[in-house]
Amino acid sequence: MAIVNLSGVRKSYGSLSVLKDVSLAVERGTVVALVGRSGSGKSTLLRCINGLERINAGEIVVDGRRVEQNEATLRALRQEIGIVFQSYNLFPHLTVERNVTLALSLVKKMSTAEGHAIAERVLNQVGLGDKIGAYPEQLSGGQQQRVAIARSLAMSPKVMLFDEVTSALDPELKEEVLRVMEGLAREGMTMILVTHEMDFARRVANEVVFMHQGKIHEQGPPSRLFVEPATPEFRQFISSAIN
Amino acid sequence: MRSFNPNDILFLAQAALWTIALSLIAFFGGGIVGAILALWRISTLRVLRMVASGYIQIIQGMPLLIQLFIWYFGLNLLGMDLPALMAAAIALTLYSSAFFAEIWRGSIEAIPKGQWESAASLGLSRFEMLGYVIIPQALRLALPPTVGFMVQIVKNTSLTSLVGFVELARAGQLVNNVTFQPLPVFACVAVIYFSTCFPLSILSRWLERRTHGHRQPVRSA
Questions:
Q1: What is the pLDDT of residue B220?
Q2: Domain range holding A139?
Q3: Tell me, what's the ipTM?
């Protein structure tokens, strides 16, 4: 039974159709990489999964719960789904610790001590235990992104979404973030990621989904997809992405 | 005719108390109503947004003087006898609330969308997002224009002289009428206005430093 199930999802902004009948099933404990050109709808697809974007038709079910646009449903659902953004979106007025514990105390009603223990654990997990008292702007981009991952992990999500999380980072900072993500994948976290890192997708993903013009154009395990691309569009995309 | 003497200065200082009292009424009354309006302005409910925006358009488009007249003379004509202090308090509160609301709405909307999105994605409710993530950041942006408008209010209280208040500006006029020494009299009035407004600027600078707390270096253990 898939933990994330999209069927017949459509989404448009006015007359611009961004997602055209997308269906996708993500099994528990797998890593799915969404790849494609900008404007192909991959980020929108990801953002529909935790309800940041409202879909016009179709259905999205996460862990047996339907994604619906009402506050109570979304709040409950979002505790199960972590998301990490390209621009980190840490809360600049709060320390690293408070960034991590804010939702623990507000949403999960945990005490300060419980929150602190979790903050220490997840920050150590991303290699930033020593930055617990720092403010986001005192950290490098890679460190901020790792804090953002820790903040999501603290909620013990069942699924993690990653929206081009390394696109704003220098090559060496990319590596530290990708290493953290690879660690998560090894521990069995279900992950859906939009990425331009083809090497990473090839190495870590169980399934690669190539999106083209708002549709899933090609899909399969990276070992097959990258070696024998079935469609000319995907072949062209890989050759331009690698060069 | 007599000369400008220390008693006149005392008279001006007492009149300045009215200026301060009226300003405080406008700060608190306008602040509370303005905060509610700012929240309505960004509400997810269309009707609240429209009510707030209509109210703000009307109030901002009308001179404070006319609003004072409406509450004081206008209601009197309708048979409601509103004391001058009441009329001034209502007019100043409504007038300030519209401007505070727009300043604060602008500051809230200046916070990047990503902050709302990441807070929402963590399961925070709308009020939690506002209270813990958005407003704390918006306060810092709102501070300079808010204080700037407060200084405007202090000076605008002089309009209440037209419904019978002897506040600082009116008191200066009265003293000048008997002394014919406009330069020292109005210099004195100006100094009192300045010393009322200057502490506001100091307060603003202090608050700005405090809300910049996260910009200070962290001492490592």
A1: 55
A2: 92-156
A3: 0.93
